Amino acid sequence: MSVSASEVADRIIDEARKWMGTPYRRGGNGPKVFDCTGFTKFIYGKFGYELGRTVPAQAGDGRELIGKLSDLQKGDLLIFAARANKRRMGHAGIFIGLDSTGTNFQFIHAAVHGGIQVNNLKETYYRDRFLGARRLLPDFVPEPDVDSLALAALEQRTESSVVPARDTLLLSPADRRIILFADGTWAVVDSLGGLSVPSSKERLVLAEGGAWHAVTPSTVRIPDLRDLSELPKTSSAPSGTKMAPAPPADGSAVYHTIVSGDTLYALARRYGTTVSAICQLNGITVKTTLRPGKKLRMR
């Protein structure tokens, strides 16, 4: 069985929520008590991602994210500053989702006061200390854009102005609806049954609880962790970690030749994938002996 990166992110967040209210304790690795990096390491570890134990180490895991808040995706690792020094990394959490304003998001983490809980960026303490983010999961596959030609095709596929309720989702009290087609395209239906193309500046987001809303891409930038002296500027991984080659632009397969000391967990971390994905690609299990010289497909 294979699942999408988005589905894995949902499972990570669901797993994190199972531990809501678990007490905070410095040095806590779980499951009875956690500190912030103990919690993120524990949660991601359940899905084959081996993180460092300190905040600076985790700030070197995965891939760098530079862009806008709307570029964040569920399951991204968030890095915050320490209590006493806003330039020093001191806290980590897991991104849940952006709100409709594009300027605020929710995240789950182990807080000193309250343990495992959900907070948001609009809270002054966290807004002032947000330093950046890292991506551990593969990038989500983007939904296709709908242009004028696609709209014409959609109109031909709509036989009447009556849209079956099972194929629609309520968008607003004005009876505007969203039609989701099997090929991933979507269109807005007004109260008269007419189709219109959503703005290219809007994203359709399924929020927690099953509600859909359009999100305008944020102009708020993600801070750049490379500005901090604690993180090496020449590497996106902790010192001593070998960097995986960038995936080929043409999407072709990537292979790794096993050397002494390699483990599936280390390879998953290095190539930005999961242990289960490597096993599935190569027809092996986590108990398979990795013999030096053998080639394994990573992507």
Features:
299 residues, alpha+beta, endopeptidase fold (from Nostoc punctiforme), Membrane-bound Lytic Murein Transglycosylase D, Chain A, 3 domains, six-stranded antiparallel sheet, four-stranded antiparallel sheet, 7 helices, 14 strands
Folded structure, characterized:
This protein is an alpha+beta fold. Helices cover 19% and strands 21% of the residues. The two termini are 16 Å apart. Mean pLDDT is 78; it is low at 159-175 and 232-244. The protein folds into three domains: 5-139, endopeptidase domain like (from Nostoc punctiforme) (endopeptidase fold (from Nostoc punctiforme)); 148-199, no CATH class; 255-297, Membrane-bound Lytic Murein Transglycosylase D, Chain A.
Question: Helices, strands, pairings?
Answer:
Layout: H1 5-17, H2 36-45, H3 55-58, E1 63-64, E2 77-81, E3 89-98, E4 105-111, E5 115-120, H4 124-127, E6 130-135, H5 148-157, E7 168-170, E8 177-180, E9 186-189, E10 195-196, E11 203-206, E12 212-215, E13 255-257, H6 264-271, H7 275-282, E14 295-297
Structural class: alpha+beta
Rg over alpha carbons: 22 Å
User: CATH architecture of the largest domain, please?
Assistant: Alpha-Beta Complex
Mean pLDDT: 78
Overall 3D shape: globular
How would you characterize the largest beta sheet? Answer: 6 strands, antiparallel
CATH class category name of the largest domain:
Alpha Beta
What's the number of extended β-strand segments?
14
Instruction: Report how far the terminal alpha carbons are from each other.
Output: 16 Å
Unreliable sequence segments: 159-175, 232-244
Helical residues, percent: 10-25%
* SSE run: HHHEEEEEHEHEEEEEEEHHE
Percentage beta strand: 15-25%
> How many domain regions?
3
Number of helices: 7
Q: Could you name the CATH homologous superfamily of the largest domain?
A: endopeptidase domain like (from Nostoc punctiforme)
Q: Could you say what the CATH topology of the largest domain is called?
A: endopeptidase fold (from Nostoc punctiforme)
Lateral arrangement of strands in the main beta sheet: 1-6-2-3-4-5
